[in-house]
Amino acid sequence: MRPFYLAAAFPLIAAAQQKPNVIVLVADDLGYGDLSCYGATRVSTPNVDRLAQQGVRFTDAHACASTSTPSRYGLLTGEYPFRREGTDIAAGNAGMIIRPERYTMADMFRDAGYRTAAIGKWHLGLGSQTATQDWNGEIDVHLRDIGFDYSYIMAATADRVPCVFIENGRVANYDPSAPIEVSYQRNFPGEPTGRDNPELLTKLRHSHGHNQSIVNGIGRIGYMRGGGKALWRDEDIADSIAAHAIRFMQSSADAPFFLYLCTNDVHVPRYPHERFRGKSPMGLRGEAILQFDWTVGQITQALRELGIEDNTLIVVTSDNGPILDDGYADQAEELLGDHRPGGPFRGAKYSAFEAGTAVPFIVSWPGHVKAGKESDALVGLNDLFRSFAQLTGQVIPADAAPDSHEVLPTLLGRSKKSVPYLLLMPNNRSLCLRTHRWKYIEPSNGGPMITWGPKVETGYRNVPQLYDMHRSPYEDTDVAHQHHRLVEEFQSIIDRERKQ
Predict the structure, then answer these.
(1) Helix H or strand E segment including 293
(2) Would you state the pLDDT for residue 253?
(3) Is the dihedral of CA 314, 317, 319, 324 positive or negative?
(4) 466, containing H or E segment
(5) Share of the chain above pLDDT 90, in %
(6) Span 111-128, pLDDT tens digits
(7) Is the alpha carbon torsion for 373, 378, 382, 386 positive or negative?
(8) 305-334 b/e with 16+ CB inside 10 Å = b?
(9) Which positions ≥6 away from 137 have C-beta within 8 Å?
(10) d(CA 105, CA 311)
(11) How far apart (Å, rounded) are the C-alpha atoms in residues 328 and 324?
(12) pLDDT tens digit string along 228-266?
């Protein structure tokens, strides 16, 4: 890659001698149909809509997987998660899944002279080994070791212990009077659980699972003791994430920054701040969508106040598709009405069907991205890595981002070129191959529905499936029997990729 790429492609930046700030804002379990700019009518998301109006809204963008941990791994490494063991949904005490020797998107930005930060949900493990973290001191391997100058993160998700924020490798607001212990094997003596002490579930009750340690009146996955003043209050999670993100931007306003900003919304347990209560006919899940939009508004307002909105590229997306009942009795199903979280697509989080990985994807950069544009180009979150390397003029190591494509002109709305294909991973680690027109689901084992809680069609069958997405976007017409050569070609691509 030629070092003068940035100046040649973006004369405005060259004139200002200034690289753009980059924010990748990732929602959690937000579906393709959960935003009003994607057709939702039972919820309004004006702040996200504003970004879509001044940028490019993609209609065929995909996460790398239909669950969180592998999807985020693919985004930050540019490598498909199926290539690495241990990229399934991580426990809260999992060791660091992205090892320090792996060159990450944060490394790339730091090499380009950026200040880098990760704020919000992490869910990619911490520490050199699983279940050996020192929650009462500094964790031996953390985000500093994979390219982030600053981090303020949730170790996993809000439904998993430990229920504390980790700032630069240490528990934020640490309370020495309440040392922290975490286990995913057994409870600590005398500690109540949602299963045995339902009377202590004062805010949310579980529908399936999520009945172990109780924090803030809500049952969690895993066992935890201690925390004291460091324990989060679920109602304040969004405020804390937004405040730390804005603080980081304020401290970096005189230099380019890369901000990997991950909200907890709309992941369970959904318990937004009190100011959103009663604001949505869809109850807590609808209120969580409003809270996500509020977060987007807080970030964009801060950019305007800092005078750097026009020099900041923002990507708004989600880590995977939507889910309704994912473990808590929050009436997400009962209050849904005619809202379709997955938009026109079949399936949901965990699924091989389209709604599992089809995500909202908006790129905004005033003056540089074509405003109000809709793009049906096929792109994946894994493609951000090499595209941002293009943006910053960085030459990355030869073995870095092996599954990322350079699609910067497409992201900026200057091209309609799609990537050749994407390989997408549902919950059972089988693979789907997606081209601009076709969706191929390889044969795999498993029943048609998830059996352990969520009401989700898996998309698993023991025979190949092929769908013409231009004619059957809902995947209701399997044409594999009509296109034997295509089925063989797509399966051979999958087999070849697995061997690499």
Answers:
(1) helix 283-306
(2) 74
(3) positive
(4) strand 465-468
(5) 95
(6) 999 999 999 999 999 999
(7) negative
(8) ebebbebbbbbbbbbbbbbbbbbbebebee
(9) 170
(10) 20
(11) 9
(12) 999 999 999 999 999 999 999 999 977 899 999 999 999
21-27 vs 257-262, strand pairing mode:
parallel
Token pair in block for residue 241: 């994430």
Per-residue DSSP letter, 36: G
What is the DSSP-derived secondary structure letter of residue 491?
A: H
Whether the CB-CB separation of 360 and 322 falls below 8 Å is answered with no
Average model confidence (pLDDT) for the chain? 95
Q: Which residues 6+ apart lie within 8 Å of 425 measured at CB?
A: 64, 65, 66, 70, 80, 81, 82, 431, 432
d(CA 64, CA 133): 28
> Do 125 and 94 form a contact (C-beta atoms < 8 A)?
yes
Q: What is the pLDDT of residue 213?
A: 98
22 strand-pairing partners: 258, 313
DSSP 8-state assignment for residue 98: S
Note whether 164 and 172 are within 8 A (CB).
yes
CB 320 within 8 A of CB 68: yes
Give the model confidence (pLDDT) of 309-351 as tens digits.
999 999 999 999 999 999 999 999 999 999 999 999 999 999 9
Smallest CA-to-CA distance from 376 within 58, 95, 131 is with: 58
- Show the tokens assigned to 455: 């009401």
| Per-residue pLDDT at 307 exceeds 80 | yes
For the cut 70, the answer to whether the pLDDT of residue 3 exceeds it is no
Letter for the amino acid at 159?
A: D
- Report residue 268 as tokens: 């369970």
Distance separating alpha carbons of residues 432 and 387, to the nearest angstrom:
23
Cα–Cα dist 364/361, whole Å: 10
- Model confidence over 425-455: pLDDT tens digits? 999 999 999 999 999 999 999 999 999 999 9
pLDDT value at residue 163: 98
